[in-house]
Amino acid sequence: MAKKTRALETETLEWQKRWEENNGRLVSITKDHENIQIEVGKVHESLYKITNLYHALDKERSSLLKKLGRDISQDPLKEVVKDTLDKIQK
User: Fold this and answer.
1) Phi and psi of 87, rounded to 5°?
2) Number of domains comprising the chain
3) 61 pLDDT more than 90
4) pLDDT by residue (tens digit) across 10-27?
5) The domain containing residue 32 runs over which residues?
């Protein structure tokens, strides 16, 4: 009976050790996930600011081109930037 008890205690200790190791890994993964979510939030905020800056600069550029009398409807740069922003936002 004592032999069986020792075997069960050993098995219990092994399971407890495994659980503690896995729990530590889970805590680590959870912290990493939280850090990644914070970083994603910062990147989204930066993207929002850059997009707003782009729109403000584009508006100013368009008004300056109009003052110069240039046709802004066929501006290839505007299309490239717009496509790039669309790809980034997806």
Assistant:
1) -65, -40
2) 1
3) no
4) 999 999 999 999 999 999
5) 2-89
- Whole-structure pTM value: 0.60
Sequential DSSP letters for the chain: -HHHHHHHHHHHHHHHHHHHHHHHHHHHHHHHHHHHHHHHHHHHHHHHHHHHHHHHHHHHHHHHHHHHT---TT-HHHHHHHHHHHHHH-
The encoded tokens of residue 48 equal 């929002």
The whole-angstrom separation of Cα 85 and Cα 78 is: 11
Residue 39 to residues 26, 34, 45, Cα–Cα distance (Å): 20, 9, 10
Q: Is residue 82's pLDDT more than 90? A: no
Structure tokens at 25: 């890994």
pLDDT of residue 87: 78
Q: What number of CA atoms fall less than 13 Å from residue 57's CA on the CB side? A: 9
Of 75, 85, 84, the C-alpha closest to 51 is 85
